[in-house]
Design brief:
The structure holds 2 protein chains of 2 kinds.
Chain A: H1 2-27, H2 47-56, E1 83-90, E2 93-101, E3 104-106, E4 111-112, E5 115-119, E6 122-124, E7 129-130, E8 134-136, E9 140-142, E10 147-148, E11 151-153, E12 157-159, E13 164-165, E14 169-171, E15 175-177, E16 182-189, E17 192-195, E18 200-205, E19 208-211, H3 218-223, H4 235-244, H5 250-261, H6 267-276, E20 299-304, E21 307-311, E22 314-316, E23 321-322, E24 325-329, E25 332-334, E26 339-340, E27 344-346, E28 350-352, E29 357-358, E30 362-364, E31 368-370, E32 375-376, E33 379-382, E34 386-388, E35 393-394, E36 402-405, E37 409-412, E38 416-417, E39 420-430, H7 433-438
Parallel strand pairs in A: 2-5, 3-6, 4-7, 5-8, 6-9, 8-11, 9-12, 10-13, 11-14, 12-15, 13-16, 14-16, 15-17, 16-18, 17-19, 21-24, 22-25, 23-26, 24-27, 25-28, 26-29, 27-30, 28-31, 29-32, 30-33, 31-34, 32-35, 33-36, 34-37, 36-39, 37-39
Antiparallel strand pairs in A: 1-2, 18-39, 19-38, 20-21
Helix pairs in contact in A: 4-5, 5-6
Chain B: H1 2-33, E1 51-57, H2 64-72, E2 81-88, H3 94-104, E3 108-113, H4 121-131, E4 136-139, E5 145-146, H5 150-155, E6 163-172, H6 179-201, E7 213-216, H7 217-222, H8 233-243, E8 247-258, H9 264-290, H10 297-307, H11 312-329, H12 332-350, H13 356-365, H14 378-401, H15 406-409, H16 439-446, H17 454-466, H18 470-483, H19 487-504, H20 507-524, H21 527-547
Parallel strand pairs in B: 1-2, 1-4, 2-3, 6-8
Antiparallel strand pairs in B: 4-7, 5-8, 6-7
Classes of the chains: A alpha/beta, B alpha/beta.
Chain lengths: 439, 548
């Protein structure tokens, strides 16, 4: 009997043991706060640089003469400049920070292992190495083959050829990334990011970016026209659209504008104008009789909301118009000059031909290839690689755009845009997309 | 023979539990080691469609200011952002608070529902949707406090044309309040951080939870809008959208604080409501899901398992009872082992709606510490859930057998009692003293019938209908039809006008109005509504025929 009793007591003890930690935490709570949410956090593409600058802001406030470095404490290239030194607690621990005033030139082969703030311009020679962050209050020019941690500049920032940046780069004005550079995190700019071929980055977050220009040139910036042109629509032009909308396609209407008004207006803008003029039917009923040729062999569901769901691979032939959002459970291929009056989504690969116009977004659960001079009004997102040929415009007017991939993004020389680019596998600039396909 | 039948039932239950266990371990594995799917958050600031935020409220004076303050501070361009507060017959200061915010912010609109009685959240949302002017509709409950970027994050996935519904993450704010709130904190954590995210990663069915989420307005119309007869209007809309081929997306990073129930009585009511509503959807959508030509096999399986989740506690109760029966009357050792296994499986793997292993994993993923020590206490929550869900299952079953439902559960606000009224900064916002009804409502009540906009015309029309003044009601509805901008709203108003004509005895006019409504629906492709209207129309025609 006593054995059974002991067994029962032992069992109860073991059960109680499970509840013991729970009881401790309940009676003496140490982790009972709600999960922290930063309710006031704003989305900021240049967050790294902004927060870095905020952290450094108080570093030299109230610093006295004791903090002025003597000449023997400074490397040769800082000899003629006043330099202050202080310490700051950062996420890595206590960091030594130097503040140098003036336009500084760092000679080739130099190495530096502290956080450096330069109150002026900075230029570095070849093969320099900086283990910690640089903050330049003027323009920054980084020489060839430098190895950097992170750089923030309040003016322009230019990376020479084959520079390796282990973190991010950021500038209030233009950023220029030369051939062969690698930026392991994001490149951000308040203005334009210029990237030469054979460069690798993780993210491009500027107002606009240009791939493959020879050098940073302000005039070119002025001349460069991004996105779609602005058209001053007249009553006569509207009448042309109204009269010809049902009988002619957008390419033909475009020709009419060329002839009648001497205006070369992209089809996308004609379509948009037609929408403003309430000419686009709110919905296109899909049934077997109305099925367009490219969906003849597919199972099609009219989903409502101006969308169709299609099972099987779809190939859209040259010059066709797709009047609705199209969701394809398979691969989607469009040949040249196709007009999509909505967005598209495919579970397989997406191949968009040259000069296509897409009013919505392109979302692929696999890879996406965008042909030359294609215009996409919203965003492009793919789970795998994205290949962008030159002349592609993503994001127009107010809508903006975005380009994101779970794999790599290959940007052909000549690609430019006013959108953010993010690729988990990195962004690579190439002379031609064909060289990647041939591999 | 009895033993054989009991054995077969037990094997069935055991198999179902094993399936749920495997499912949950798949989720766990995916969350810990699998590829995490991207949720369009790489360019939230680049895609900013028009957004209407609906906030249904009924006696929410303690929390109304919190949510409205958060929505005023929301980081979203004002030219494509509006907040619509639906004040559904509140008897406290709610309407006044909302009016106050609306007077200071152009983008806030307040709809005061003052006639008749309140008819529940789904009904309030239905009205709000009519007034929503933008392409995306988001919903926040009144006791929620979204982060500043929440709207941006929730709208980003809509750049994909295949996305119909979006859901964000809910985090309990009042976790420290009581034993129950701490348990619910854990449950929410596992449910969102692991379960919802894994289902999204695996391209299955994350569930829209009725708040901190939203949908495309046109899709809402296509699937027939909010169903006021369903207690779980969120599950209902999730399945209707999903079965129509749209994707449901979960955005873990779109976080929002909520106030969870703080006592067991409230919890029981809430759970019972969810269980009944969910089971209503089970009966409505089980077969449709199984036979859907659009869904993949894995999607069907997951959708069915999600649909049946409130039946599992019932199965476990049945399993245990049968286990006890076998222990006393049958194969003693074999079935005892069976029952013990069942218990272990149930406890370890199903246990709660966010199972224990998932809760543990979520604590790790959220980098929280000792809160995981509380996990064994969830056993009590689990037993409570089992008890309530079993009761709710039989209620739904009997109501279903009787031919449905509805009035006892639907058309009313099932509210969670607000206790704190504390916003995230810890500031008390409103004293809970009784206050007179807002001035604006008093004025409306004494005014002569006159309509300046759709809202006032509708309010007046329904008031007149209640007073059996059908002639004036017809005039009010006519005005409403004229000013309605949206096709579906126009169609619905035509139906109301038709009804008024019918009661008035003008059957020709009634048929004419319903025909108009049907045509409008056909034109805008709203087949669901079109079918419904045609049903009413046919009845009307047959009635008229019989009379003549």
């Amino acid at each position: 009997m006593i054995n059974y009793l002991l067994l029962v007591l032992l069992s109860m003890g073991l059960v109680f043991l499970c509840f013991l930690p729970a009881l401790v935490e309940y009676l003496r709570p140490k982790d009972d706060e709600p999960l922290a949410i930063n309710l006031s956090m704003e989305l900021d593409e240049r967050y790294f640089a902004h927060s870095f600058r905020d952290i450094l802001e108080p570093a030299f406030s109230g610093v006295g003469k004791d903090f002025v470095l003597k000449d023997e404490q400074k490397p040769g290239w800082l000899q003629k400049f006043p330099v202050l030194k202080t310490y700051l607690m950062m996420h890595r621990g206590k960091e030594e920070i130097w503040l140098a005033e003036g336009d500084i030139k760092i000679p080739a082969g130099s190495k530096f292992d502290r956080i450096l703030i330069i109150d002026g311009n900075l230029s570095t020679g070849e093969d320099c190495s900086f283990e910690k962050e640089l903050f330049v209050k003027g323009d920054g020019f980084i020489g060839q083959n430098n190895v950097l941690c992170c750089v923030s500049a309040m003016g322009k920032l230019k990376l020479g050829e084959n520079v390796l940046v282990k973190g991010w780069i950021d500038a209030d004005e233009d950023v220029y990334v030369s051939e062969g550079c690698e930026v392991k995190s994001r490149a951000a700019s308040g203005k334009t990011i210029w990237v030469e071929k054979r460069s690798r980055l993780l993210r491009l977050a500027g107002d606009e970016f240009v791939v493959g220009e020879d050098k940073m040139n302000e005039n070119k910036l002025e001349e460069k026209v991004m996105g779609l042109p602005t058209i001053r629509w007249t009553e006569g032009m509207d009448t042309v659209i109204k009269e010809n909308f049902k009988s002619k396609n957008f390419s033909e209407i475009k020709e009419l504008f060329k002839e009648g008004f001497n205006e070369d207006i992209p089809e996308m803008l004609i379509f948009r104008r037609a929408r403003i003029l309430n000419l686009i039917e709110p919905l296109v009923k899909m049934n077997e009789k109305q099925k367009p040729g490219f969906l003849k062999d597919n199972k099609v569901w009219m989903q409502g909301g101006e969308s169709v769901l299609v099972k099987g691979n779809v190939t859209i032939s040259e010059g066709e118009t797709v009047p609705y959002n199209i969701i394809v459970k398979g691969e989607l291929t469009s040949q040249a000059d196709v007009v999509f009056r909505g967005g598209l989504h495919a579970t397989g690969k997406i191949f968009i031909g040259d000069r296509n116009s897409i009013t919505g977004s392109v979302v692929g659960e696999e890879g996406v290839v965008l042909g030359m001079d294609t215009v996409i009004e919203n965003c492009v997102d793919a789970e795998k690689n994205i290949f962008i040929r030159k002349g592609v415009i993503i994001g127009t007017e107010k809508r903006g755009g975005g380009l994101a991939a779970g794999g790599k993004i290959y940007l052909e020389e000549g690609v430019s845009g006013r959108y953010k680019v993010y690729a988990e596998g990195g962004i690579q600039t190439v002379e031609s997309i064909d060289e990647i396909f041939s591999k | 023979m009895i033993l054989f039948v009991v054995g077969v039932i037990l094997i069935f239950i055991f198999t179902v539990l094993i399936i749920y266990t495997v499912r949950h371990y798949c989720f766990l594995w995916n969350r810990l080691f699998g590829k995490q799917r991207r949720d369009f958050q790489d360019f939230p600031s680049n895609y900013q469609p028009g957004v209407s935020v609906l906030v249904p409220m009924y006696n929410e004076e303690k929390v109304a200011a919190n949510i409205l303050s958060r929505l005023v501070e929301m980081d979203y361009p004002r030219d494509c952002y509006e907040v619509i507060v639906i004040d559904d017959h509140s008897t406290d200061k709610t309407g006044q608070i909302a009016d106050d915010y609306a007077s200071k912010n152009d983008f806030i609109k307040v709809i005061h529902r003052i006639e008749g009685k309140n008819r529940g959240k789904a009904s309030a949302l239905k009205v709000g949707t009519v007034f929503a002017g933008h392409e995306i509709t988001l919903v926040f409950d009144a006791d929620y406090q979204p982060s500043k970027n929440c709207v941006q994050r929730l709208t980003a996935p809509f750049c994909d044309v295949a996305v119909g519904l979006v859901m964000g993450r809910v985090v309990p704010l009042n976790a420290p309040d009581s034993f129950l709130t701490r348990m619910l904190d854990l449950e929410r954590s596992g449910g969102y951080q692991v379960d919802q995210q894994a289902r999204y990663n695996l391209n299955l069915l994350p569930q829209y939870g009725g708040t901190v989420g939203g949908m495309r307005k046109d899709i809402l119309k296509v699937v027939g809008g909010w169903d006021v007869t369903k207690l779980a209007e969120d599950t209902d809309i999730t399945y209707r959208v999903f079965l129509n081929g749209w994707k449901v997306t979960y955005v873990n990073i779109a976080e929002c604080y909520e106030e969870v129930v703080h006592n067991w009585k409230e919890r029981r009511g809430q759970l019972r409501r969810w269980a009944i509503g969910h089971n209503q959807c089970l009966f409505a959508y089980f077969w449709k899901t199984l036979t859907s030509p659009i869904l993949r096999f894995a999607q069907k399986i997951d959708a069915l398992l999600l649909l049946s989740v409130y039946v599992i506690p019932v199965l476990m109760v049945v399993g245990w009872l049968l286990g006890i029966y076998l222990y006393f009357f049958g194969a003693y050792w074999w079935w005892l082992l069976f029952a013990a296994l069942l218990f272990t499986l149930a406890y370890n793997n199903v246990g709660n709606f966010a199972v224990f292993c998932e809760v543990g994993t979520s604590v790790v993923l959220d980098r929280r510490g000792r809160v995981a020590w509380l996990l064994p206490f969830n056993l009590f929550n689990f037993f409570a859930n089992m008890w309530v869900c079993t009761g709710a299952f039989f209620v739904t079953l009997f109501e279903g057998l009787k031919g449905g439902a509805k009035e006892e559960y639907a058309f009313k606000w099932e509210k969670t009692k607000r206790v704190s009224g504390v916003n995230v900064l810890g500031i008390e916002t409103i004293e809970s003293e009784e206050v007179p009804r807002p001035q604006i409502i008093e004025e409306k009540a004494t005014e002569e019938p006159k309509f300046v906009d759709l809202n006032s015309a509708l309010a007046e029309a329904y008031r007149l209908m209640r007073e059996r003044n059908y002639e004036d009601a017809v005039e009010a509805f006519k005005f409403a039809v004229q000013v309605a901008e949206d096709a579906t709203a126009t169609a619905m108003l035509e139906v109301e006008l038709g009804k008024a004509y019918f009661i008035l005895g003008e059957k020709k006019n009634a048929i004419q109005e319903l025909s108009k409504a049907s045509k409008i629906c056909a034109d805008c492709g709203n087949e669901v509504l079109e079918r419904e209207i045609e049903g009413v129309l046919n009845k009307l025609i047959s009635l008229s025929g019989e009379e003549s």
